[in-house]
Amino acid sequence: MPLNFGATLEGDVAKVLHSPEELRKACQTLGAAISTDYEGKLPLVVGVLSGAAVFMSDLVRCITIPCELEFIAVSSYGKRSVSGDLHFKKDVSVDLKGRHVLIVEDIVDTGRTLKAVREAFSDRG
Questions:
Q1: Class of domain 42-60+68-123
Q2: pTM for the whole structure
Q3: Residue 108 vs residues 4, 18, 51, 54, 61: alpha-carbon distances, Å
């Protein structure tokens, strides 16, 4: 069934935790902080597909400094892999050595994916 992003969630969601306006303001605040912290550094913003794509597009619109964008797609080996082994189905196409890399993830439940991506990127410079 195709997703209808314009549909309301009435009846499907027990409680809305944050309104669209609250999310917009948080995104603006984060974008402003990134712009201040990385002024003059050309950060590389890397989104973890596919969940981070929509938020990342909103976030980079709130960043007022130049930045580069990349996307990665990762999966664990096996359905319930706890080993931390990660397979890059799509990797970045630029050299990470000496770069300021910001990883954008949609939902962090266990943190294993984010930790493994961070370690893999750290190993590259």
A1: alpha beta
A2: 0.79
A3: 24, 17, 11, 16, 22
List the domain boundaries for the chain: 42-60+68-123
Q: Residue 109 catalytic?
A: yes
Q: Say whether 34 sits in a helix, a strand or coil.
A: helix
Among 95, 93, 89, 86, which Cα is nearest to 119's? 86
Signed CA dihedral, 113, 105, 22, 65: sign only: positive
Active-site residue (options: 12, 58, 85, 109):
109
End-to-end CA gap in the chain: 42
Sign of CA dihedral 104, 107, 113, 116: positive
The Cα 18–Cα 21 span in angstroms is 8
Determine the residue type at 57.
Answer: S
Summarised one tens digit per residue, pLDDT across range 54-102 is 999 999 999 999 999 999 998 876 555 455 577 889 999 999 999 999 9
